[in-house]
Each structure stands twice: as structure tokens, then as C-alpha cells.
Specification:
- By secondary structure, the protein is α/β, with parallel strands linked by helices.
- 45% of the residues lie in helices and 15% in strands.
- The strands form 2 sheets. A 7-stranded parallel sheet has the order 3-2-1-4-5-6-7, sandwiched between helices. Strands 10-9-8-11-12-13 form a 6-stranded parallel sheet, sandwiched between helices.
- β12, α13 and β13 (313-314) form a beta-alpha-beta unit.
- α4 packs across α5 (107-116).
Length: 368
């Protein structure tokens, strides 16, 4: 049998890129001689992240429809035509056995062109509320892999497989005790630790909350804080007195999330789909603060699914200043609540999502 070829397309944000890379890595582990080509959007982060992961990528002149600038949307039809033409050219030259889309601007032209050329396409949708690209192209796809219940509202029921979202392999590779993880970060193993993450750019709302409340919470509740600030506020914070507190571990970006998750007793996080999938695997009591400006407010919808399962608490972004502190204090003081949230969130974990997605693709393409 000849070595299979795959085109994988998805990007714009890490939430689309990292699942795409995870699927490629799993396919590569099954078919070491397989060939891969990614299609992304020019000037977006996939053009950097994909080559760093060892894969080739072609960039399209494409972007989403702007909600704020009508003028910028005038270029959209030209970008779309350009991207469809280039996608067709790339696919004709590479001749893949399948095209896999994980959402984002670039996956639209790639999947559409592939389906028009009779090449099998597959969709992986991370969110509980799909993006416009996947909703438009779902009828052409062979199969659609989702992470939430009730997705038949958006996709053909017979094509849906609830596999969960791909999560980073590194989260499972380093298995140490919580005490060891706390020590590794230079923190006191006898104290409760809150891990606060706001994504790679950071969350100004969450950062402002800690600027105002960190010292008070640490002193009054006898806890410690692992604080991923993101790029937005890091420089300001490390020059602030708050960074000198030995009970606060401040980092712009935490590369070793496995240790951070293991060390934590409570987690505060945005509600991106991949973040939630990782949080379910981490299995810690969690307070979700959805980013309110995500497309179709999908982070709130993601978070609500966990709240419905009594597996996380949610505080709206606009209510952080007056509701997060009471919710956090309740979690710190109520061990039984922490235990319940932990038990329930673990039930939602799907650590084998990537393997299951690839199993489906291999079976459908008859590559066994």
C-alpha cells in the first residue's frame, strides 16, 4: 500500500491549530512514511506554530468577516476567490487521500475545494457552538468529530462522532505527585494553590482581579497563586511589588502545563474549547470566566455545558469584580464542593480523543 497523504487545515487561533497538529502527530505515529501538508491563513499564528512542529504549510490570503470594519469586508470576496483558486492548485499538486479541517478561516476554502474535487473531507469541531466555516461545510464532510452533546442541532446526526477534543500529549507524559509538582515550582506543598490562566495573550479582566485581590486572598486564606499573565500585562506585573510575594509564581506563559495542573488545587480559566478539554483531563475544581467577545459567544456556551453537569462554576466576565472573590472563597473553604466538582469534571474527560479521531479516519479511508 502506498503511503497516505493528508492535507490538514485550521488556524487563526491556538484552539484550531493545536488540534490540527495533534491529529497530524497521531496519523504520523501510525503511518511513519505518510506525507503531510498544512493549509493556513497568511500572517496568522499557524504560519509559525506548524513549522515549529515539523510540518510544511502553505498560506492563503484569507481572513474572517469583520464585525467592526465594513471597509475591510469589501476585500473579502476577492480573498475568498483567491483562496479557493490557490487551495485547488495546492490540492491538485499534492493529491491527498483526505483533507481534515479543524476550523478557522483557511479551512473553509481548503475543505470546499477538496469536496468539489471528490476528495474525502473530515471536520473536527472543538466548540459547543460551531464556527460558520464548519456549519457551511458539514454536509460535504464524511464524518464530523465533536466534543459536546446536542451537536445534531448544527450537523447531520449520522455524521457526528462525540470523540472529545485532542489535548496535548505532554499533559500525560510527566506523572509526578502533587507535592512534587508544588516543590518543583518553588511553592509550599502544605498550602492550597490556585492556578490562574487567561490564554497566551492573557486576560485583562483576570489580571485586574488579581492585581486588586491577590495580596488580600493570599494573606487571609493562606493560599498560593500560580499566575499565567499572558503577554498583555507581564512586563508591568514583574516590575510591581506583587511579583515579590513568595506565595505568587508569575509567568508570562507556562510551557510545562502538566506540572502547573498537577500542582494546583483550584483553577481559574477562560472557557476556550481546548482549555476546557485539558481542564477535564486535569480534573481540578474550576471557575470558568468565558471571554465575552468570542464568536457567537461560544465560550459562554462551552462553560454552560460544564455548569449543567455540575462540574465547574462560571462567573461572567462583567461580574468578575463583584462575584469572583465570593465564589473563590467558597471553593477554598468548602472541601466537599471541591471534591464534587473534581469528581464530576473528570467524568467529562476524553484523554483518548486524538486516537479515536484517527481511528475513525483510518476506518473510513480503509487504510487498515
Amino acid at each position: 500500500m502506498k503511503s497516505p497523504k493528508f492535507i490538514i487545515s485550521g488556524g487563526g487561533t491556538g484552539g484550531h491549530i493545536f488540534p490540527a497538529i495533534a491529529i497530524a502527530d497521531e496519523l504520523k505515529s501510525r503511518f511513519p512514511n505518510a506525507e503531510f501538508l498544512f493549509i493556513g491563513a497568511k500572517d496568522k499564528m499557524e504560519m509559525e506554530k506548524v513549522p515549529q512542529s515539523g510540518y510544511k504549510i502553505e498560506g492563503l490570503w484569507i481572513s474572517g468577516i469583520s464585525r467592526s470594519s465594513i471597509l475591510s469586508n469589501l476585500k473579502f470576496p476577492f480573498k475568498l476567490i483567491s483562496s479557493l483558486k490557490k487551495s485547488k492548485k495546492i490540492i491538485s499538486k499534492f493529491r491527498p487521500d483526505a483533507v481534515i479541517g479543524t476550523g478557522g478561516f483557511a479551512s473553509g476554502p481548503a475543505l470546499y475545494a477538496a469536496s468539489k474535487m471528490g476528495i474525502p473531507t473530515f471536520i473536527q469541531e472543538q466548540n459547543s457552538f460551531p464556527g460558520i466555516t464548519n456549519k457551511k461545510l458539514c454536509h460535504k464532510a464524511e464524518e464530523i468529530y465533536v466534543a459536546y452533546e446536542g451537536m445534531e442541532k448544527f450537523f447531520p446526526k449520522e455524521k457526528i462522532y462525540n470523540t472529545g477534543n485532542p489535548v496535548r500529549k505532554s499533559l500525560f507524559e510527566k506523572i509526578i505527585s502533587q507535592e512534587e509538582a508544588k516543590k518543583e515550582l518553588g511553592l509550599d506543598p502544605s498550602k492550597l494553590i490556585i492556578l490562574s490562566v487567561g490564554g497566551s495573550l492573557g486576560s485583562r479582566t483576570i489580571n485586574n482581579f488579581w492585581k486588586q485581590n491577590a495580596q488580600n486572598i493570599i494573606n487571609s486564606q493562606n493560599i498560593q497563586l500560580i499566575w499565567q499573565t499572558g503577554k498583555l500585562d507581564y512586563q508591568e506585573l514583574i516590575n510591581n511589588d506583587i511579583s515579590k510575594n513568595p506565595d505568587i509564581y508569575i509567568s508570562e506563559f507556562i510551557k510545562d502545563m502538566a506540572t502547573a495542573y498537577t500542582a494546583s488545587d483550584i483553577i481559574i480559566s477562560r472557557a476556550g474549547a481546548i482549555a476546557i478539554s485539558e481542564l477535564c483531563v486535569a480534573g481540578k475544581p474550576t471557575v470558568l470566566i468565558p471571554f465575552p467577545y468570542a464568536a457567537e459567544d461560544h465560550q459562554t456556551k462551552n462553560a454552560q455545558q460544564l455548569v449543567n453537569h455540575k462540574s465547574a462554576l462560571m462567573v461572567k466576565d462583567t461580574e468578575v469584580s463583584n462575584k469572583l472573590l465570593p465564589e473563590l472563597s467558597k471553593l477554598i473553604q468548602d472541601e466537599e464542593l471541591r471534591k464534587t466538582l473534581k469528581q464530576n469534571i473528570i467524568k467529562l474527560a476524553k484523554p483518548n480523543a486524538t486516537q479515536n479521531i484517527v481511528n475513525h479516519i483510518i476506518k473510513k479511508l480503509k487504510l487498515n
